[in-house]
Design a protein that fits this description.
Helices cover 58% and strands 9% of the residues. The longest helix is centred in the C-terminal third of the chain and has 24 residues. The radius of gyration is 29 Å and the shape is globular.
């Protein structure tokens, strides 16, 4: 019996975490056997069903033609602020995957150094969201884990090599594709091994050593000895005469780690205090309080509890800035991943439309800032505000309401008022939703729709008569308007269009007449 097997034997029955992990392994294994596993490189074009060699399909799967600005533009849609972090991540990803593309084509870059990334910043600033959004765009095999789940032995917690094996599962068992994936490890600061700093476990040094091997270049067995699902697969491979999988090389796996690094600022201030002599010293120390992460050097991370070799394998260091009230407001208002979309969908499941005014969003942002947990505070505040709304409104005839500052400050009182006056209030909200449709149309297409009072009232009446949400009704009525209006704008330069009641009743007819008129006008200008 090996030492690892002996350790496992003496460990006793599996912990709940180990049992849960085993269940997940079995589920992944069964999915593979049933063929219900998605491809790891989701951004690839589908292969031609008419045929083609496996090499051609693999090259198509691995196509990567993004530029740094393309990736940053995608991140800007979901993550507010953190411009420096987005730029660094975008460049590092492009460098990495262009190198991978060349390597797959047999053009190795002997002098290329892998740019493993360290993300720093307080909780709730978007570190995890950045990586998740990035991975969704690229579509490569991607694994996320918390550093706290690992242990040096692999039996008390998890084995760091399981991260690499998880990439194989994400890549549908394709070892070669797994070798070009991304491994993201959060809470990396929790494995700092300095016993005198924050009570961290010295076993974290062992985890660092194990991770160091992965980040450099090593071979990892595709199946762990204690992986039951892997053992079953191995037996099936042997019976079926298939070649058993071997090892996974980590040379081209990109590692991204992140953490809040609480207490790092004290180490930075101490270093600057000791080194600062003469004029300007107080200013440097003051800067360290505000810009601790930016001023941090390798020696600070070593003092924090990281092994020099480990921190040296993370050459790209990115600082995520704290979020203030304005940032939180922009997250609510502008981010495609804004939590208000979640509440729109939650209430929408009961046929209830909710409209968020700017003053309401601003108040939510102010309250979330007081939580001191970054963007996570938005969920805390929103759940407190809408708890009674979500409980009461689905059982009433209320179909719409507005979230303003009063609702945020006095949710219970505003809910009672809403329940008493919902019919009159509902018509006001519907008008607001018509105006909101106009604003979103302008933001998306650069063309302004101006509804007359009669047109807006007619949309409200139709919405009530048909029991159809105004957003859906407007989308249905004016689904083709952007195409026709762009033609008109091209012909005439017009960018603002007044929507009368007749356009609500017969939108296609009115749009067609407008387009024809624009061409006639253009022809008259040419002939004239």
């Amino acid at each position: 019996m090996t030492q690892r097997e002996n350790n496992a034997y003496r460990a006793g029955p599996p912990t709940p975490e180990e049992f849960q992990k085993f269940q997940q392994q079995m589920q992944d294994f069964l999915k593979q056997q049933m063929g219900n596993v998605t491809q790891g490189f989701s951004r690839a074009e589908p292969s031609n069903s008419s045929g083609g060699s496996s090499n051609e399909k693999k090259e198509a799967d691995f196509r990567f033609d993004y530029k740094p600005k393309d990736i940053k533009a995608h991140l800007d849609r979901f993550v507010i602020k953190q411009d420096d972090a987005k730029k660094v991540l975008s460049v590092a990803l492009c460098d990495h995957y262009h190198h991978v593309r060349l390597a797959m084509g047999g053009k190795q870059q002997p002098n290329y150094a892998k740019q493993n990334i360290l993300l720093m910043g307080p909780t709730g600033v978007g570190k995890t969201y950045l990586i998740r959004s990035m991975a969704e765009l690229i579509g490569v095999p991607f694994v996320k884990a918390d550093a706290t789940k690992f242990s040096e032995t692999g039996y008390v917690g998890g084995d760091v090599e399981d991260l690499v094996r998880d990439l194989v599962r994400k890549a549908n068992g394709d070892v070669e594709r797994a070798q070009y994936g991304i491994i993201y490890i959060d809470e990396i600061d929790k494995i700092a091994g300095q016993t005198g700093h924050g009570g961290r476990d010295v076993s974290g040094r062992g985890v660092q050593t194990n991770l160091l091997k992965l980040m450099e270049e090593t071979e990892v067995s595709a199946r762990a000895n204690n992986d039951i699902a892997g053992q079953i697969q191995s037996m099936m491979d042997q019976r079926g005469g298939r070649r058993q999988s071997g090892t996974i090389n980590t040379k081209h796996i990109l590692f991204v780690v992140s953490g809040a690094f609480d207490g790092l600022e004290a180490i930075v201030r101490k270093r600057l205090r000791e080194a600062s002599i003469g004029f300007g010293a107080p200013q440097k120390i003051e800067d360290a309080h505000e810009r601790a992460y930016e001023l941090a050097m390798t020696r600070d991370f070593i003092d924090y509890g990281f092994e020099p070799e480990f921190i040296g394998r993370l050459p790209v260091r990115v600082v995520c800035q704290p979020l203030n009230t304005d940032d939180l407001f922009q997250i609510l208002k502008s981010s495609e991943g804004s939590i208000i979309r979640q509440y729109e969908e939650t209430f929408g499941a009961y046929g209830i439309e909710v409209f968020f005014r700017d003053d309401g969003l601003r108040r939510i942002a102010e309250m979330a800032a007081e939580e001191k947990t970054g963007a996570r505070g938005l969920m805390t505040v929103c759940e407190k505000i809408f708890r009674e709304f979500k409980f009461e409104l689905p059982s009433t005839s209320v179909k719409r309401f507005v979230v303003n500052r009063e609702v945020v400050d006095q949710p219970s009182a505003e809910l009672q008022r809403l329940l008493k006056e919902h019919e009159q209030h509902g018509r006001v909200v519907l008008r607001e939703l018509v105006n909101e449709f106009s604003r979103r149309f302008a933001e998306t297409h650069g063309l302004q729709l101006k509804f007359t009072d009669e047109a807006a009232d007619r949309l409200v009446v139709i919405s009530l008569e048909q029991g159809k949400p105004v957003r859906d009704l407007c989308a249905e009525k004016f689904k083709d308007f952007q195409f026709g209006l762009k033609l008109i704008s091209k012909n005439t330069g017009q960018t603002e269009f007044v929507i009368e009641a007749d356009a609500v009743e017969a939108p296609d007819k009115v749009l067609s007449e407008w387009v024809v008129k624009s061409y006639r006008g253009k022809e008259e200008m040419v002939n004239g």
